[in-house]
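note to self: dont lose this again. the chain is below, predicted strucutre after it. 282 aa total, dont forget to put it in the shared folder this time
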Amino acid sequence: MKRNSSSETWDFKTLKVTRPREYVVNVELNRPEKRNAMNSDLWSEIRACFLQLATDADCRAVVLSGAGKMFTAGLDLTDAILQETTMSDADVGRKAFSLRRNIALFQESFTVIEKCPKPVIAAVHSACLGAGIDMISACDIRYCSSDAWFTIKEVDLGLAADVGTLQRFPKVIGNDSLARELALTARNFFADEAKEMGFVSRIFPDKEQLIEGALDLASTIASKSPIAVQGTKISMVYARDHSVADSLEHVLTWNQAMLQSEDVKNAIMANMQKQKPVFSKL
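---
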């Protein structure tokens, strides 16, 4: 991954990464001619990108969007590596081990979004199909345009979703019955229903206003203490998968160190003086 210091971008085959605002990074799926379908390069580059952003002191919030006419068509069924793995005549045992390795890498491509301590805001326009649901379920916040529509597509392709939807989506929407209905039927659901079920939190009239709204939110988050913001995300992800007692113990251990940060003092002093606090890079 090469950094372009003059335009603040990285050179990827399938992603366009820019810094549209202070401390805000926009990661854009950039295969518009293929409807941003996810090939092996994209899976690999998503992992590399978010691993880098996780430790980038100039990044405090991320907007994840898609170039072209739709957010993503999901899995690229024409990808050579995918076809080679699934259509191979290799020994069943060896083929199974190969599939397991590839699926684990695909899973990690979206888990790195969840593990990245910087909040990630998905900005979805038009279609978000199949693996796109897996991807945005790993994000922290989801916005969409009024023309957005979604499908958990995998059962129509003869497989169970295996890179995050079945594990994250039900917890995001908090409705097990509806999650099963959508996963078992592959029916489309649209922006209004997505908001009603809690999958997205805001709907915008069009893509332009969607991106602007997502960037505004990212800027607001980026203006806060990076220690407080990242600690909040890490604690909320932990709490989702653990008991209340375990999660309280986790944040207790976390804050016994983080409450000693200069950010607490700076925030309190700024509030007392009715000024906007400024926080140093983390």
